[in-house]
Amino acid sequence: MKATYKAYFVYYVLISSVFVNAFEPISTTFVVGLGVAAVGRKIYNYVYESCDSKWIAFNSTGLEVALDRKLFGQHVASRVIQKAVTGFMNNKNPKKPLVLSLHGWTGTGKNFVSQLIAENLYKEGMASSFIHQFVSTAHFPHLSQIENYKSQLQQWVKGNVTNCPRSMFIFDEMDKMHPGLIDCIKPYLDYYENLDGVSYRQAIFIFLSNAGGEHITQVALDFWKEGRDREEIQLQDLEPALSLSVFNNKKSGLWHTSLIDKNLVDFFVPFLPLEYRHVLLCGMAEMSAKGLKPDQDVVDQMARDLVYFPKSEKIFSGKGCKTIGGKLDYYT
Fold first, then answer.
1. Helix axes 25-47, 2-21, angle to 10 degrees
2. Is residue 111 marked as binding?
3. What percent of the chain has pLDDT over 70?
4. The sheet that has 131-135: what strands, in order across it?
5. Which segments cross the bilayer (predicted)?
6. What torsion do the CA atoms of 296, 299, 301, 304 make, to the nearest 10 degrees?
């Protein structure tokens, strides 16, 4: 479809140039030329992604529905993400960028939530040129190069926010990032109106990490042992101790970071470990996504063969829903 529009754009420009040349040049070229240029820009913006409301428009209802129907077992995270993102996007004059730090074991939905936010903010979703994703082990692997990484990261953030203030930056594997590196972007997350003429207040920064997973799991396990409903767990049961444990985790990229010390992280969002019932929901959704008719027996067999912990109780899925797609290929 895009190729067709691009071809039309070229054709339109060529036809327009012929149209202009058909008139007396002195009296008409300037006026018609301006009109062609204006229309040409509109067609260009229609075909190519631009930093405007056609390509970037927040769908609060869409995000709420997606979180409710597609994210399983994460009532705390779902509520926090919906309120935080909606509140930020509805604020016409935010005092700082939105900074979210998502924590929990693998397969609990951290990357998936980033995708849902993107899909309900950018027309192109995760394919948007205004979303910038970093994976610590891929982009910042060598400790000896940390100073170079800092310089490159600062330039990348500044350049892309200059290009589009409504940019999103996702930092994955924060638990594997070299401590001290992320502090280089601290000025961009602070309460400055602008830095060197650039305002960062409309940007979104999301950190994804396994750090803090032990604490989150322990709280969920304690609720289970006490016979309390999992849905009774609230953000206040987790966030204070979570932020402290992440700050003091020497193996985390957020260890003693000024981002936490200066209270620049708006929310530490906990992702609870998933139970057997949540794995079943993931399996049924995955079958639908694959174009298959959801089969409870197939999903149940697949779910029973997964590894659960702790060893004695076997309550939580060791890999959450991360391996569901591949496992279903075997069972179907």
1. 180
2. yes
3. 86
4. 131-135, 168-172, 204-209, 98-103, 267-270
5. none
6. -120
107 is in an annotated binding site: yes
Could you tell me the two tokens for 290? 């694959």
154-179 tens-digit pLDDT: 999 999 999 999 999 999 999 999 99
Beta-ladder partners of 209: 103
Cβ contact 270:216 at 8 Å: yes
H or E segment to which residue 173 belongs = none
Distance CA 97, CA 305 (A): 43
274-302: per-residue pLDDT in tens?
A: 999 999 999 999 999 999 999 999 999 99
Q: Which residues contact 31 (CB under 8 A, 6 or more apart)?
A: none
Separation between Cα atoms, residue 158 and residue 198, nearest integer Å? 8
Which of 219, 214, 159, 207 shows the shortest CA–CA distance to 181? 207
Please report the DSSP string for 245-308 in residue order: HHHT-TTSTTTT-HHHHTT---EEEE-PPPBHHHHHHHHHHHHHHTTPPP-HHHHHHHHHTS-E
pLDDT in tens, 194-210: 999 999 999 999 999 99
- Annotated binding residue 109: yes
Give the end-to-end CA distance of the chain in Å, rounded to a whole number. Answer: 34
Report d(CA 202, CA 89) in Å as an integer: 8
The residue ranges of DSSP E strands in the chain, in sequence order, are 98-103, 131-135, 168-172, 204-209, 267-270, 308-309, 316-317
Q: Which of 62, 288, 312 minimizes the C-alpha distance to 324?
A: 288
Is 104 annotated as ligand-binding?
yes
Query: How crowded is the C-beta side of 323, counted as CA atoms within 13 Å?
Result: 13
| 213-225 helix and 239-247 helix, angle to the nearest 10 degrees | 150
**Annotation-wise, does 326 bind a ligand?**
no
CA distance 132 to 207: 12
Least Cα distance to 116 among 166, 168, 162 occurs for: 168
Q: Is the dihedral of CA 157, 158, 163, 164 positive or negative?
A: positive
Q: What mean pLDDT, rounded, does the chain reach? A: 90
